Amino acid sequence: YSYKEDKSLLSATAYVKKMTRDGTWHQISSTAFFEEYAQSYNGRLSQFWGKMPHVMLSKVAESNALRKAFPFELGALYSSEEMHNGISKTKIEDEFLTEETIGTAPQDDVAIEIPEGADLKLVDEYIKYLEKLYSQTNPVIKSWINKSPKRFWETFPKWVALQEKKAKEEVEEKIVEIKEVKVEE
Predict the structure, then answer these.
(1) Orientation of helix 138-147 relative to helix 120-134, angle to 10°
(2) What is the biggest distance separating any 2 CA atoms in the chain, rounded to whole angstroms?
């Protein structure tokens, strides 16, 4: 943590260590500044930001550092501590949620445009993966895809490659297990 001259909280820095494929460890850091993230309502800090500013700011710094270290897996995830004017218990207590606040629920039959040649089964699997990753329903994920189709179709092949790599590693592990069993016999 760092502090201003008046000893009030200025920032929190979090560090994440990530090993790259070549076995090298890298330290990724992120600094979150209190004035940029502290949530307030009617000029007063929200309940948790006022009561536990260090904890709240460290959560923001940690989330930012994790997103920087793992952009593909966590790039679109944000914690409630980071979201200004987001849905929070204190805000829910103070006002009724409107469509402007939370948006409208997408219809169940949201369609997405799928490029020619795309494997429909893999597209469905990727969407199911995103549903679990973001804890969202299929229509919500599909509406996000429609809002950012370019990003979806850029990340889709990366996800497919990752799945293929995992499958290959599983096969290799099974081969090693079989070889070990044969050696023991």
Answers:
(1) 110
(2) 74
Q: Which residue has the tokens 């502090």?
A: 3
Between CA 74 and CA 153, with CA 18 as vertex, the angle to 5 degrees is: 35
Does pTM top 0.85 for this prediction?
no
Q: What integer is the mean pLDDT of 152-165?
A: 86
155: tokens are 């990340």
Q: Which of 42, 52, 44, 43 is nearest to 81 (CA)?
A: 52
Residues 13 and 61 sit within 8 Å (Cβ to Cβ): yes
Which residue carries 């409630």 as its tokens?
Answer: 80
Which pLDDT score is estimated for 4?
A: 92
Q: Which of 56, 51, 59 has the alpha carbon at shortest distance from 14?
A: 59
Q: Please state the length of the chain.
A: 185
The whole-angstrom separation of Cα 25 and Cα 17 is 6
pLDDT grade for 41, boundaries at 50, 70 and 90: confident
What CA–CA distances, in Å, run from 87 to 65, 82, 91, 162? 23, 11, 6, 33
CB burial readout 11-43, b (16+ within 10 A) else e: bbbbebeeeeeeeeeeebebbbebeebbbebee
CA distance 105 to 73: 25
